[in-house]
Amino acid sequence: MGTPTRPRRQLDLPVSQITPPKMHDSEVELKLQEIMKMNGILNINGQRYQTEMKDLEHLGELGNGTCGHVVKMRHKPSGVVIAVKQMRRSGNAEENKRIIMDLDVVLKSHDCPYIVQCLGCFITESDVWICMELMATCLDKLLKHSRQAIPEDFLGKVTVATVKALSYLKEKHGVIHRDVKPSNILLDETGGVKLCDFGISGRLVDSKAKTRSAGCAAYMAPERIDPPDPTKPDYDIRADVWSLGITLVELATGVFPYRDCKTDFEVLSRVVQDDPPSLPTDAPFSKEFRSFVSCCLTKNYKHRPKYHKLMEHPFIRKYDILQDNDSNSAVTNSGQWFGKVMRQLDPR
């Protein structure tokens, strides 16, 4: 948790005049009351600590996330270094809802190995601190510092973990992420992959999202920008599948598919009007990877697969099996590549 991210502007979509139903203030208050029961309790390495903010030593800045900034801190009683997402509680109701949603999702997802782990939180009248496990980097930073495309074998591992995390959110908690992108996919020191940043995730009602909170325009699905039926601007988990497809194209090629666009509006127009991005035909990608990306970037969301179908795809099945076989050359090569890049990032 808590790596620097490339700034991308958030966009409030002007495509519909419909006012969507929102999480009621009473729901937010109930969630806050539930979370307050755990205020100041940190679970670190299997031990429970009743902690105060003064027990955390500031070590440096890590970056920015939804609603706040992330710092590196040492938990003095245990000596463990953690990431702390610090957010101000304001009079802005939507900002407060984002904070509570982020905290609610990570606290409930402690049993998923593909979601960054929350160690606990602090809530005061003016601030919210979310204490997380410290991760090594994110895919956005990894791509930037490696100065090369990320190998397909490593992306296989990323894809398996991300789809499992998204499927978990949907099946266990009825949540859609809505902001899948390289900066929200984190890596630990061993190359383990975890999803983070749930500030704009949304509740699903009858498997559909009813609100249109802005995510990052660059990764937004066509049906979120231009709903087939403007009077019913619903969408489902397949919007996140599209975002995953855009993410994979960017990571596999080293360049963002809409990199020549100068404004968010231009990006949105191209997402709606152009054919979906694809992997270069002259690049040495496997047919399974090409097929998987093509499935994710199916323009008509009704024909785009959901998570259970993605998990049956040959590309995911291959890498899901390989994760349990450390001696496989693809796993070995992937690990060696990641280790080399991380040594370049931190040569100590």
From TrEMBL:
<dbReference type="GO" id="GO:0010508">
    <property type="term" value="P:positive regulation of autophagy"/>
</dbReference>
<keyword id="KW-0597">Phosphoprotein</keyword>
<protein>
    <recommendedName>
        <fullName>mitogen-activated protein kinase kinase</fullName>
        <ecNumber>2.7.12.2</ecNumber>
    </recommendedName>
</protein>
<keyword id="KW-0723">Serine/threonine-protein kinase</keyword>
<dbReference type="GO" id="GO:0004713">
    <property type="term" value="F:protein tyrosine kinase activity"/>
</dbReference>
<dbReference type="GO" id="GO:0005524">
    <property type="term" value="F:ATP binding"/>
</dbReference>
<dbReference type="InterPro" id="IPR008271">
    <property type="entry name" value="Ser/Thr_kinase_AS"/>
</dbReference>
<dbReference type="GO" id="GO:0030707">
    <property type="term" value="P:follicle cell of egg chamber development"/>
</dbReference>
<keyword id="KW-0808">Transferase</keyword>
<dbReference type="GO" id="GO:0004674">
    <property type="term" value="F:protein serine/threonine kinase activity"/>
</dbReference>
<dbReference type="InterPro" id="IPR011009">
    <property type="entry name" value="Kinase-like_dom_sf"/>
</dbReference>
<dbReference type="Pfam" id="PF00069">
    <property type="entry name" value="Pkinase"/>
</dbReference>
<dbReference type="GO" id="GO:0006950">
    <property type="term" value="P:response to stress"/>
</dbReference>
<dbReference type="InterPro" id="IPR000719">
    <property type="entry name" value="Prot_kinase_dom"/>
</dbReference>
<feature type="domain" description="Protein kinase">
    <location>
        <begin position="56"/>
        <end position="316"/>
    </location>
</feature>
<dbReference type="GO" id="GO:0016477">
    <property type="term" value="P:cell migration"/>
</dbReference>
<dbReference type="GO" id="GO:0005829">
    <property type="term" value="C:cytosol"/>
</dbReference>
<comment type="similarity">
    <text>Belongs to the protein kinase superfamily. STE Ser/Thr protein kinase family. MAP kinase kinase subfamily.</text>
</comment>
<dbReference type="InterPro" id="IPR052468">
    <property type="entry name" value="Dual_spec_MAPK_kinase"/>
</dbReference>
<dbReference type="GO" id="GO:0051239">
    <property type="term" value="P:regulation of multicellular organismal process"/>
</dbReference>
<keyword id="KW-0418">Kinase</keyword>
<keyword id="KW-0829">Tyrosine-protein kinase</keyword>
<dbReference type="GO" id="GO:0004708">
    <property type="term" value="F:MAP kinase kinase activity"/>
</dbReference>
<keyword id="KW-0547">Nucleotide-binding</keyword>
<dbReference type="GO" id="GO:0043068">
    <property type="term" value="P:positive regulation of programmed cell death"/>
</dbReference>
<keyword id="KW-0067">ATP-binding</keyword>
